[in-house]
Amino acid sequence: MSGNGPGNGPLAIICGGGKFPFVVADAVAHSGRKPVLFAILGWADADAVARFPHHWFGLARFGRFRRLARQEGCRDVVIIGTMLRPSLLQLRPDLTTLFYMPRIARLLRGGDDHLLSGIGRIFEENGFRLVGAHQVAPGILVPQGVLGAHAPSARDQVDIDRGLGVIAAMGPFDVGQAVVVADGYVLAVEAAEGTDQMLARVATLRRDRRVRLDGKVGVLVKAPKPAQDRRLDLPTIGNRTVAAAREAGLAGIAVEAGGTITADFAELIAAADAAGLFVLGVPPPASRAAL
Amino acid sequence: MSGNGPGNGPLAIICGGGKFPFVVADAVAHSGRKPVLFAILGWADADAVARFPHHWFGLARFGRFRRLARQEGCRDVVIIGTMLRPSLLQLRPDLTTLFYMPRIARLLRGGDDHLLSGIGRIFEENGFRLVGAHQVAPGILVPQGVLGAHAPSARDQVDIDRGLGVIAAMGPFDVGQAVVVADGYVLAVEAAEGTDQMLARVATLRRDRRVRLDGKVGVLVKAPKPAQDRRLDLPTIGNRTVAAAREAGLAGIAVEAGGTITADFAELIAAADAAGLFVLGVPPPASRAAL
After folding, report:
1. Phi and psi of A183, rounded to 5°?
2. What is the tally of structural domains in chain B?
3. Residue from the list B188, B209, B214 with its beta carbon closest to the beta carbon of A191
4. CB atoms < 10 A from the CB of B41, how many?
5. Chain B positions in Cβ-Cβ contact with residue A214 (cut-off 8 Å)
6. What is the residue-wise DSSP string for A127-152?
7. pLDDT by residue (tens digit) across A38-50?
8. Does B226 lie at the interface with A, CB-CB under 8 angstroms?
9. pTM, 2 dp
10. Last residue of a domain, one of B137, B152, B167
């Protein structure tokens, strides 16, 4: 096992909301490694948490996490699942977290990457090793190629290239994992609202005829920001994304292969096939440049 | 008078919706030049149109426009006011327009700049000269400096610089005249939805605590895209922008001085002062680089 890859001891999984934490925990258990869930109060799904060895803790109780994770013998830590950016006023820090509060306050004044990489450094200074969910559960990564029954047209490909260009251009500003492009026209750019809400906006613009496009046209393009720490925040898609893309009248979805995660690949593709949408895994930028 | 500036004959003003066409027509009349309004059916305000020499025409009736404008002796043309991107299916072109339809169809498959500069070229090929509304009515341009009773803080200035950076980066993709940045975090990027709707989204994100910011923080930043044809589509602000920015909990508005237009400057500043928001006219990029 290489020095940079995950180790073999018990793995701490800090669990936010949604299904991902449990898909990852199942994959880890299946690989023969013990997952220990650190479920965040208010976010993690209690029924699913109960299926695994676990502890509950408050978001700002880093001291409690550190003590329990050390007791459990966890050196590697995965952070996965939905969480909102907290307000400082709402955090109720324990003593250890209090020590880090000035740094956390500075981190909160910035984009998501800035916040997450700063949080990651705090874990590492305390002897933990931050591991990407996709490193311990590679099955969640979306693969390359045409992934369902439908394929993108040449017209869709123009939209896909333009969307990837916008995401790359905005990367330095720590914004925009996703855009919608239709007929070469950038209809929507995602910032703090999230992909589903961006797609709902496109659906409304089309329904109200504020954007006039005839037929099933346009692509949702998602890819990690160029400088993003992939251990902490990979773009996600799922059958809800497919439903929202269909409502927006799009032709399909293109995501960066190996740089986008999905909790249930089979379910995703079944939904896309049924909705008549293509799902394309595009090669990551290095391979694209080499083409 | 230089060869590139507007001439002195009657000026054709192609009028979309909103107040701008009439502010421009009044300014032109006041300068001693005759405005002739070409009011677009379904968009221009009939009562206001009636105050000026005018003709009505359908959006795709270029032949009718060309004939009437030549009869009126108009060589210079201003296009101003709100209009939606039409659907090809909904256009009812006259014969002259029909001749241009293949080109228009191609222009519609692209961003706003692409569409507008292509339309501009069609006018020029027919012997008209396209003139910016701000060239014949310079009073609509937002000037430089702190423009109301409130001034941006150092914290706001960081957000302003970041917003200008995002707009510059997205310019090549013909998207994003406006962004909202708060505490260095890009909350929203405008694409097809328009500024008011983008601000409403920020208000909702904050109200639902999906974005957690305490107090009056964040800036709406608007500037023309770097490659934009300024004769056709300058960013606009007004008292509705101020109301939407206040609802979004922002500290103020920063726009490119000399590159943003407003229909009633005094009304804009009165609204901003009353709402406790700053309005800043930032120097255009060339001057910024020279600072």
Report:
1. 55, 35
2. 2
3. B188
4. 11
5. 87-89
6. T-EE--HHHH-GGGB--SEE-SS---
7. 999 888 999 999 9
8. no
9. 0.86
10. B137
